Amino acid sequence: MKTRSSTSSASQGVGEGWAAVSTLIGGFVFWGGVGWLLDHWWGTRFLTPIGVILGMALGIYAVVMRFGRAPVPGAATSKAVTSKAVTSEAVASNAVTLEAVTLEADHTRNRVAPGQLGEVIHVGLSSAVSALVAAQDGSGFSPPSVEEAFFWDRIGDGSFIASIKVVVLLLIGTVLILAFFLAAGRKAAVVPGKLQFFAEGIYGFVRNGIAIEVMGKLGRSWAPFLATMFSFILVMNIYEIIPVAAIPVTSHFVYPAALALMVWALYNFVGIKKHGFLGYLKSQCVIPGIPWPMHLLLIPMEFLSKILLQPFTLAVRLFANMFAGHMLVVVAGAGTIYLLESGGFNYVMAVLPFLASIGLWFFELLICALQAYVFVLLTAIYLEGAMADSH
Questions:
Q1: CA 280: distance to chain centroid?
Q2: DSSP codes, 244-266
Q3: Could you tell me if 83 and 43 are in contact, meaning their C-beta atoms sit under 8 angstroms apart?
Q4: DSSP-assigned states of every residue in 112-177
């Protein structure tokens, strides 16, 4: 049951939060406007961004000076409360508990004015004890774990880990890709419609920009495969920035590994088919035109690099980029929600992770497309290298 004092405290916190936000916004709007006027007056172009940055800096400074350094009545008493309630040895040994702090506050209630007690306890506690108390009562910020962020589901006794959500997204994405290209090609016309134009744009980009550019005339026959792979990886990556889905399928290592193993088996198969087994090994591992003693060193290195490690690096590159990007987005979003729920001055601080979340969203959009492009580009390079007549 909420008391009148807790309700007024919450209202005061909301009021302070909105006052801080308005101060911050007003700062960069005012000084940005001044810079814009000066740019139009003097014919320059750099004063507007300088004004915006200056306004944000002045706004943050004003907010910190107004709300972050408010005077605390009974500061001398707070020092006494802190020295008696908590010692550095107790903090180091985790011996201080929430109950101990509460008992000490009750013990000193007669020496501190009732209206000042909450402020004294809040300001008087050291940051270490504040973090300990927050962790004990569940109010502290805990960043999401890897298991929470990537929707892992423990099957049976927990020894087997899967992700039902990721599998569902995989199936939905596959069906959507099939439906898209079937619908785009069902009514093909000389003058394409919007759907056909979009599908032909994706195919043409991969065909001309990757397949033919890397593989020459052979790229024409490989263009459908490479375009399909590009579309599949792009959709699996793009789930990261789609609400509700909010996770890239390729951030689970099994999917990049499966794609890389398929590429490894494919380029080895076409290489052996063209050159024969021994001829393929020779074309991949033997560098012509070097002194024969160097072969003792280079043949094992070429075998390790081209036959064994290429699928591993192909999978890890895609997985690591999507895994790390997703964690950044999740932590920034969780930090924003936590600060907004905390109230008071944290309303202003929530602007920082919120802006970071927006920036990361656009950045990850670029990464999703770039990683799909790199994966398909390397696939084309490996296929071309396997079918090449010389090293």
A1: 41
A2: TT-S-GGGSTHHHHHHHHHHHHH
A3: no
A4: S-GGGHHHHHHHHS-HHHHHHHHHHHT-S--PPPHHHHTT-EEETTTTEEE-HHHHHHHHHHHHHH
Tell me the C-alpha distance between 266 and 382, whole Å: 10
Spatial distance between the Cα atoms of 276 and 264, rounded to a whole number of angstroms = 17
Give the whole-angstrom CA distance, residue 375 versus residue 368.
Answer: 11
CA-CA distance, 112 to 120, in Å (whole number)? 8
Q: In the predicted model, is pLDDT for residue 115 greater than 80?
A: no
**Dist CA 9 CA 370 (whole Å):** 49
The pLDDT-based confidence of 320 (bands split at 50, 70, 90) is: very high
Higher pLDDT, 249 or 243: 249
Instruction: At 87, list the tokens.
Output: 């010692």
User: Does the predicted TM-score (pTM) go above 0.85?
Assistant: no
Reduced to 3 states (helix: H, G, I; strand: E, B; else coil), residue 33 is helix
Give 96's contacts (C-beta < 8 A, 6+ positions apart): 86, 90, 129, 132
More confident residue, 35 or 155: 35
Nearest Cα to 176, choosing from 254, 236, 223, 224?
A: 236
Quote the tokens at residue 276: 């024969």
Highest mean pLDDT among 55-69, 79-93, 111-125, 206-220: 206-220
